[in-house]
Amino acid sequence: MNDCIAFAKRNFLCFFRDRSAVMFSLMTVFIVILLYLLFLRDMLIIDGSEGMPELMDAWVLAGLLGIVSVTVSAGSLQTMIEDKTSSRYRDFMMTSMSSYRIAMGYILSTFAVGMTMSMITLIISVIYLSVTSCPVSVEGILMSVVFMVPSALSGSVIIYAVTSFLKSTAAYSGFFTIISVLIGFLAGIYMPLGTMPELMQIIGTLVPATHMAAIFRYYLSGDALDSVFSGADPAVLSEFEADMGYTLSLGGFEFSILTSLIYVLLVSAVFFLIAVYSVRKNRS
User: Is 50 left (phi over 0), alpha (psi -120 to 50) or beta?
Assistant: First the structure.
């Protein structure tokens, strides 16, 4: 197992030594923040209710936590693509490391990168929300840290499984651009999930990052939501939660935090098997 950990450490350090790769991996985060501040904020604040601006700020930042592990994972795996184009990947295949350990080495490094960047995003978000006087509980912050683990794990496994089939920098660049743009729509960040066409809502609900975004919204912006809708009709609150992606449903089945977490882990397990198959195929 030591060789797997050493391999993961090597990949982790290679990513952070390339500052441009770090910046590009956070491109989606920067784009969402700029779009929100310049255009979306006034559109999302639908009424003059006290605390609504702070609620929308928390809603967007919580959604960012749900997708940052995906975009950062895609950026981190540039190391693997460079290994393939420089033939270093073939050298790894010739070692005694099994296909399972090679896959785990890339996934562990990507997971570590995702956790690091997610933590930085959370710290910045909490500071911003504190400055704007948005109510955020200590419990909500701690639970957000806890759920970063399945979020980063899911992002690293799924993105690695897809990226493992790519063999050129051109293909990787195209995939990175598509995933960076698309994930913001699918997770209901550029526009609320409830305002999208039905087909897009179904596709978005199938994406694990959407479930993680919903969980982060519950914990990071839940206090602001309770403050704004205190005393409101429960039906109004339920409709708002469904439209804004706090609650997710598919075919009449409503996901709870537990069922969302189980779904994310099951999808991640399937993609891990795909990743191992891809490595074995390359080795053969």
Answer: beta
Arithmetic mean of pLDDT, 145-164: 92
Cα–chain-centroid distance for residue 92? 29
Side-chain half-sphere CA neighbours of 87 within 13 A: 0
**Predicted local distance difference test score (pLDDT) of residue 33:** 76
The reported pTM is 0.89
Instruction: Please tell me what DSSP assigns to residue 250.
Output: E
Structure tokens at 179: 């995933």
User: DSSP class of residue 198?
Assistant: H
Using alpha carbons, list the distances in angstroms from residue 194 to 57, 187, 190: 18, 11, 12
Tens of pLDDT, residue by residue over 224-280, are 888 888 877 888 888 888 888 899 998 889 999 999 999 999 999 999 888 888 777
Mean pLDDT for all residues in the chain: 84
250 φ, ψ to 5°? -150, 120
For residues 207 and 260, the answer to whether their CB atoms sit within 8 Å is: no
CA angle 35, 40, 41 (to 5 degrees): 110
The helix/strand/coil state of 86 is coil
Of the candidates 125, 130, 131, which has an alpha carbon nearest to the alpha carbon of residue 36?
125
Beta bridge partners of 58: none
Q: Is the pLDDT of residue 49 over 70?
A: no
Q: What does the alpha-carbon distance between residue 253 and residue 109 come to, in Å, rounded to a whole number?
A: 35
DSSP single-letter state for residue 192: -
Residue 284 reports pLDDT greater than 60 = no
Up-side HSE of residue 79: CA atoms within 13 Å toward CB?
Answer: 26
Q: How far is CA 255 from CA 83, 158, 184, 259, in A?
A: 40, 21, 20, 6
DSSP character for 245? T
Q: Report how far residue 75's alpha carbon sits from residue 22's, in angstroms, rounded to the nearest whole number.
A: 7
